[in-house]
Amino acid sequence: MSAIVSSPHRAAAAAAGLFLLALGITYGRVLVRLAEDWATDPNYSHGFLVLPLVAYLVWERRALLARAERRPAWFGLAVVAFGLIMLAGGTLGAELFTARVSLIVVLAGTVLFVLGPAHARILVFPLAFLILMIPLPAIVFNRIAFPLQIFASQFGEQVLQMVGVPVLREGNVITLSTTSLEVAEACSGIRSLATLITLGLVYGYFMEPRLWARVVIVAMTIPIAIVTNGLRVAGTGVAAYHFGPEAAEGFFHTFSGWMVFVLAFGMVCMVSMMLQYVGRSPAGDEGEGGRAVPARATR
Fold this sequence. Notes:
- With about 300 residues, the protein is mainly alpha-helical.
- It has helices at about 1-40, 45-60, 60-65, 75-90, 95-115, 115-120, 125-130, 140-160, 190-205, 210-245, 250-275, and strands spanning about 170, 175, 180.
- A 3-stranded antiparallel beta sheet has the order 1-2-3, covered by helices on one side.
C-alpha cells in the first residue's frame, strides 16, 4: 500500500527532476553569465539574494498551492514557446536581457501548462520578483545613471553652498578650493537605488499586510535613495574641503557609502512605521482582550 501511495510522489519528483535538468541544459550558459554579472558588477550584487528569497516565497505558499485546483492550461505551451523564441532571439542577437527574461516567461508558462491558472496566480509575486535579479540593458542603465549623476552633483552643490563651502560645478564635476570631485557613474546612486528597491519590496512584503502600503514603501525607496546619495556627495565635499582630498577616497569614501545606505534603509523603516497609523481605526480591529488583530492579506 505504501508503495502504491508513494508512486505518484515519485513520479512527480522524477518529472520535476527532468524539468530542472532540461532547464539547466537550456539556460546553463545564461545562468552562468548572470552569476558572473552578480559577482563582478556591484550594481547587481543583490542578485545573489533574489533566488533564496524567491525559494522562500514559494515555500511559504505551499499550503495554498496544495489546496489550489489543478487544471492544466494548454495555452501555457504557447507561453513556453514564446519564452524559447525570446531565448533564441536574445542569444542570436547577443541581447542578454531578452535571453534572461525568457527564463521567467518559460517558468510562468510551465506553471500554467502543468498546474493551471490558480497556481499561476499564487506564484505571480515570486515569479515577478525574479526580474530584480536581471541587469538592465546598457542603454536603459545609462539613461537612468546619467541623470542621477547630474542630480547628485546639483544637490551636492546646493548643500555645499548652504553650509558656506565655496564651490563651482561643471556638469558632474564639483570644484572646491582644495580639490575637484567627479560624481562618477558609481556615485550616481543607481547601485543603492536598485538594492534599496529590492529591500523595500522584501520589507514591505513581510512587515506590511496592506497592498497599498507596500506600494507606498517601495515607491518611497526611489526618492529616499536619490536624496541620501545627494547628501553623500555633499558630505564628501565638506570632508574634502576641511580635511583634504584623502577624505574623498579609499576607506572613508567606501565607509560613507555604507553609512548612507544604512540611513536610507532606516528612512524606509520610518516610512513603514508612519504608515502603521494611516487607515487604521483607533479603536477598531481588536480581538479579545483589546489586543489589535492585524489585517490578513492574500499573498
